[in-house]
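Form 7-S
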Amino acid sequence: MKLLVVLSLLAIAAAAPQISQRPNLKPDEVQILRFDSDNDGLGSYNFAFEQSDGTKKEEQGELRNAGAEDEFVAIKGSYSWQGPDGVVYTVTYIADDTGFKPTIEQGPGGAVPPGVVASLLG
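Output:
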């Protein structure tokens, strides 16, 4: 259930309009500044991107227990964006056989509502 809530929050955050670090930048003017991707085709991968509006994401996945019944991909990563309040928020996470574990950081002046933090951290 917690995973469903977290995934829902991530989907909402990804779909929400982002305020640019450059106030006059329109959404259709956002450009990809960097994109890296590597996938070995065997379960391990990494990718990263950065956009001109300050949005960033990095993620690495590693296949664990290959060939075993309890095989899984362990993931770690982070993403950041500038919220409507002008504050840069960063979510760092690990997702493995023990679940999804996010950590939220915000720049100066930011405050994630305590209820959101509590629901993410369980």
